[in-house]
Amino acid sequence: MRAIVSVSNKEGIVPFVQQLVELGVEVISTGGTKKVLQENGVNVISISEVTGFPEILDGRVKTLHPNIHGGLLARRADENHQQQLNEHNITPIDIVVVNLYPFKETIAKEGTTFEDAIENIDIGGPTMLRASAKNHESVTVVVDPTDYETVLGELKEIGSVNKETRQRLAAKVFRHTAAYDAMISNYLTESVNETFPESFTVTYEKKQDLRYGENPHQKAAFYEAPLRADNSIASATQLHGKELSYNNINDAEAALQIIKDFTEPAVVAVKHMNPCGVGVGVTTYEAFVRAYEADPVSIFGGIVAFNTEVDEETAQRLHEIFLEIIIAPSFTEEAEQILTKKKNIRLLTLPIETETAIETRFTSVRGGLLVQDEDTYTLEDATISIPTKRQPTDAEWQDLKLAWQVVKHVKSNAIVLAKDKRTVGIGAGQMNRVGAANIALHQAGKLAEGSALGSDAFFPMDDTVEAAAKAGVTAIIQPGGSIRDEDSIKKADEYGIAMVLTGVRHFKH
Question: Positive or negative CA dihedral for 43, 49, 50, 53?
Fold first, then answer.
């Protein structure tokens, strides 16, 4: 039995190959792998002895040879194949242990040059893997060190690796090479500023199996992008609490997307991927109190995100409420001691960065995938116009800005009321805009008086302005762009409302 071993990840490779040799397997090896094995007293054959040709071009060519690929691809039960092997003095290769140049690790390093990235594109490795996996009827191919034990166990027990294991390992190989190629293609595509290429391949790595999906009868898992993004739920550190669920992760992501839009101390409470309360303040505690008071009912069983460290005073208030998750850049020692008294609450830490690279967002549809840039448009990017007779006051401007920051993250149709540095009413996910407004106004009650209203899209008619005015709203911010804008402007003037047009909508489906 003959094996070829050439690995970038050398975890566990020495004891694995030692045991292969003890089982009578003849081992061929290359470059750095051969050096490591020989330094540890493992007797291996150099690849050059098999090919009759030296490694050339700084190692770019060493395994691309008929003596290797003939040994990998020959069908053992095909007499013609066997005859050709004999004619050319090629020995079959039964086991292939290969993993690839560290392309992912290379491009993840700060300061990596394009030339460095290109040199870490493996050619011979994927070729051997694909050849071996194609011929898994006869060849055992191992790309993952976690499979060493399984292969050794079967070799020791039955003298070979069973067919089901070979097939499973072959499937893993093609997943591995597909992911590897996807990272390379995406890197090169980005390097030439190609936005939406003719084919689109993405790859993710499993972070964890989930107990179930959106509902208990649905299966689910959580996958993470191969290049770590520090400002993401996937890279968060969990300090305490039970395992995250499918819905936890979705809600936590929604909270993170909102909180990273704020520079001043802010707190966001989220329920079912919609904010139920947002508050800002001079201190963390002040911001939390405002977020809590925005909707003390809906916050129950929700998720709360901070963009500042959670201190002892704030933790005392948090401890009084049933919450699923608390997200923050950090917790003081005292705060952590208070909050961890509850067994199940999840405490997550991660950097809350206000400026991050624009990510591509994916939405699956049956048989397809929708791809778009994430919505990073802010009020600072907008072309502001004020068509009403009255201009907003300074206090109204503060409320308008908060309403605009929040409404972008509320499911459409969306209306948000803000007053005194907190939301006071949120209407989400309605089939018509006035319906969303009525929900927000009802929630706000008397607090609607003197509040500012933000809308994620234009008013198709003046009924929303009418409803807001009757509830006491004094300022409105909306995109504009309806053929009936003038009706809404006249209605605002009729009630003395200041209206700001931004020229951009924020639909969120």
Answer: positive
